[in-house]
Design brief:
Elements: H1 8-18, H2 22-29, H3 33-40, H4 48-60, E1 63-67, E2 73-77, H5 79-90
Antiparallel strand pairs: 1-2
Helix pairs in contact: 2-3
Length: 94
Amino acid sequence: MTLINIQPEQVRAARAMLGWSQDDLAARIGLSRRSLINYEHGIHSAKEETLKKMASIFREAGIEFTRTASGAIGLTLSEEALLESRVHRRRPAP
């Protein structure tokens, strides 16, 4: 069984790339905003099931989390997701 190892910094970066707020991501995961904030600030760790769900949601949105052999972490955003996030940010608020 492969453990999901998503770092809080990656989650914040992924949200920023997609233009998602903490409320947006928490709702998609089914997690309280406070729990997400605590994870993103390193106050609490996330359960393996929560990390799997988070990885799946981000993957569907075009984000892949990466880690190099030297241990550097990062993420990639698909071109389609990049274009969608740009369009989404340009839409006026209702």
